[in-house]
Specification:
The structure is a homodimer of 477-residue chains.
Chain A lengths: L1 E3 L1 H28 L7 H19 L3 H9 L3 H9 L3 H10 L2 H10 L2 H8 L4 H7 L5 H9 L3 H12 L15 E3 L4 H10 L9 E5 L5 E6 H6 L13 E5 L5 H11 L3 E5 L5 E6 H19 L12 H7 L1 H19 L2 H6 L2 H29 L7 H32 L2 H31 L4 H28 L2
Parallel strand pairs in A: 2-3, 5-6
Antiparallel strand pairs in A: 3-4, 6-7
Helix pairs in contact in A: 1-2, 3-5, 5-7, 8-10, 13-14, 14-21, 16-21, 18-19, 18-20, 18-21, 19-20, 20-21
């Protein structure tokens, strides 16, 4: 029995493949340096032997592991490994691999090979790859499916990307109501293979209307004569194809589901969602949102060309510069004041910085509350009151610390008081913005995590400079 | 059959309970306003009836849903609902509820009730609550367990919190090698109930050494006379109790596992990990890390008292202020220069801001690479080269934009050139810091997501001011 710590095994595979690739590179250089007419047969054979080894190594890997290996390799090595990947594995690897890497692999694969890779995939994997492979190839593969799968694919494609229908599978085990446990079990034994992640069988009536579900483990242990109705649960978590996949993610996490039914508007079972797809969608969306929060649009291949990587960061930098220019013009309006009291220039970044930080704390709480669905009713009002009070308390406390700092450095009590007032007010501004900005983005149907921080920093920077320099002009000059 | 969209049901339950709580509050006020000797019997009965309804509503909820309801209610309402929660549900709810809310609930529950809540929990739930309920209560409950569970609890507690052993369950179905499929199935039918999330049975020898695993679905469909050895897979994902739980999370996601074996150093099966616990740990750690990234230490109850909430944010604000003070002193060193050219004060925040933004983009990529285990070998060197090139490219481009802005506003080419040079250099500094800081934090055994951003902003702010003002003093004054 082979029980390996999975990551040790995986790193060992990557090291193996890297070693084979290095050997390959050495052999390549060597063969090219020699005059081709004198090319040694032995070296040529070594070269071939090396590729055979590489091929064998790839064949033994789980598709997810092979995807990992491909993502971890520079572009040339990646192309070589891909060319040595057995045809049967290419489809599953395309499903598993990161978006940015998939695009390149698809570009590098001849059309015929791509067709061979897509043909054996099951319907939901094929649905997943729609829009990620050339449309004509996808269409020709999907048209070759049987009528049921074609209908499934057509209906799935008609639904939005973030709907349950888009991630469901038509492959679901059912039993007819009215059977005994023994008869249901006998039917199961004589039917086709049970799909992966089948923890429960769905009980349906003659028109395929969902009646309940029975755990496979319960069916196995039940007395053969017992009617399945007495074993089944009728309190089910189920979804409509048009339900939001985010809602399914929360339900799977909350109730530890392995599978859940998908029913049409008449209550007929049309498929199921399984936890592996849900987990994958949740992971991908968390990953995307973490990158987007830093202003990286979508996926970035670790080995992308420099210009692509640089360009990936432009929209965010442009937006950031725009807000920085505006904040800078706010300061520009007070240049006269700064000339009279240069200490203002030294102290103003502190006011802006502490505002940005407290505002981002509020944003983190609001975004988390939205993700956990903590504001079903009027909690935002409660939240706003609380954040304002926290801001006032922290403003008084840390405003005093900052004011004291100014007092000590510049020996000016009025300057200290202006500093205290500016910090206090900017924290209040930050609290309001920290609550309002993400909630507004959400109401506009956008990801609140994505733009909230840049808008907030814009508000706290500009207002921080304005409050501090404005108060200074009023009271110090 | 009840197939509800889960969140609709949940929101309906919360609305129901809120309505009952409001009725309760109205009745309370009414009863108190009246002279107690004239208190109407009818109202008293209504009051009682209301509580009975609340009790019934709570009883019908899934523990995870009840935890959600408790988290969504202000403190007084929460205490009332908790008092009406059936004793049998209190244990599971304590397992599900957020840390900050659990602490309050534990404080408010009489010791006897808490004992009753803990006693029926299974061993891994009890292990999970260690350190989260008063130690003497926990000890007295664990000492009442049978010898096997006591050993399990003792061994689990001896392992670090972030190890597989800490989240494993001793509750695992095995079959002895050498049996036929029919005999194994018969044994399964006569044994105790099959634990939840059992997708596979583990095959062990006489000394409980793990030999392989067999899918429940395959066992059900197998011919009765076939030996189980021919059905089982011997290529298993398995863990040692001391393995890092992060590694288990990645393996569960990569291979879509429902359960995995845990074996001791001699290969003996000692338990299993299931996906529900793995999912919960992954979710909690992602949640914690999102909050910590904004400097919120640990969990914050939405309805915590203001002072607690304010205090939760102090360490981060203190750290932030410290770095802001240092950056401010950098500017302070150039006050003479600023007095001569006040435009510098206006422009310097732009240099600092764009450095912070590009650095945070790099950090997001590095942290993601670490989370996806993308740097098993020497990728950081590759990454550093790439980030430096991207920074140089972006520095030249956006530095020119910024320089042009300065040129247009202040009609000074030298000022524009200084601006360009400062932005270019600060982006290079940001790229280096963006790669080095998270990798160093990781090497020090800390969460790279937590402190990276504050250190980076400190570097890019201070260096941004220093580079810009320093170059200005050298070339403009």
């Amino acid at each position: 029995v082979q029980i390996g710590r999975p990551e040790e095994k995986l790193h060992a595979s990557l090291a193996d493949i890297t070693r084979l690739l290095q050997k390959h590179a050495v052999l390549e250089t060597f063969t090219h340096r020699q005059d081709s007419s004198r090319r040694d047969l032995l070296e040529h054979l070594q070269h071939q032997q090396n590729l055979v080894e590489l091929h064998a190594r790839c064949r033994s890997l789980h598709p997810a592991d092979l995807a990992y290996v491909l993502e971890s390799l520079p572009r040339d090595d990646r192309a070589l490994v891909w060319s040595q990947t057995p045809a049967a594995l290419k489809g599953p690897v395309l499903v598993e691999v990161a978006d940015a890497v998939r695009d390149r692999l698809v570009d590098e694969t001849p059309r015929g090979e791509l067709l061979d890779a897509l043909r054996p995939l099951d319907a939901e994997d094929l649905a997943y790859l729609e829009g990620k492979v050339p449309p004509d190839l996808w269409n020709s593969v999907s048209r070759a499916r049987d009528a049921g799968e074609q209908t499934f694919l057509r209906e799935t494609m008609a639904l939005p990307d973030d709907s349950v229908g888009h991630v469901m599978s038509p492959d679901v085990k059912t039993v007819r109501e009215g059977l005994s446990a023994g008869a249901a079990l006998a039917e199961l034994r004589s039917s086709e293979a049970i799909p992966a992640h089948t923890d429960q069988l769905f009980v349906v009536d003659g028109r395929r209307v969902l009646r309940g579900a029975i755990r496979l483990a319960d069916l196995v242990r039940a007395d053969a004569t017992v009617p399945i109705e007495s074993l089944m649960t009728t309190n089910l978590v189920g979804f409509a194809p048009s339900d939001a996949v985010d809602e399914a993610i929360r339900a799977f996490e909350r109730y530890d589901l392995i599978s859940a039914a998908v029913v049409d508007e008449r209550g007929r079972l049309i498929g199921r969602v399984t936890f592996d797809v849900i987990l994958e969608v949740a992971r991908a969306s968390a990953d995307r949102s973490a990158l987007e929060r830093a202003g990286l649009s979508g996926d970035e291949d670790l080995f992308a060309p420099i210009l692509d990587s640089a360009r990936n960061r432009w929209p965010w930098l442009a937006l950031n510069l725009l807000t920085a220019f505006v904040a800078s013009r706010v300061i520009g309006a007070f240049e006269g004041t700064i000339t009279q009291l240069v200490a203002l220039a030294t102290l103003m970044p502190i006011v802006a910085s502490i505002g940005g930080n407290t505002g981002n704390q509020t944003i983190a709480l609001v975004i988390r509350g939205l993700a956990l669905d903590q504001f079903p009713h009027d909690a935002p009002r409660h939240l706003m009151r609380k954040e304002l009070l926290v801001a006032a308390l922290n403003g008084a406390l840390w405003g005093s610390v900052v004011g004291l700092f100014a007092l000590i450095i510049y020996r000016s009590a009025p300057l200290g008081l202006v500093m205290l007032a500016a910090v206090f007010l900017n924290l209040v501004v930050a609290a309001v913005a920290g609550v309002v900005v993400p909630l507004t983005l959400r109401r506009l149907g956008r990801d609140p995590a994505q733009g909230a921080s840049v808008v907030l920093t814009f508000v706290t920077d500009s207002m921080g400079f304005l409050l501090f320099l404005g108060l200074a002009r009023l009271f110090l000059i």
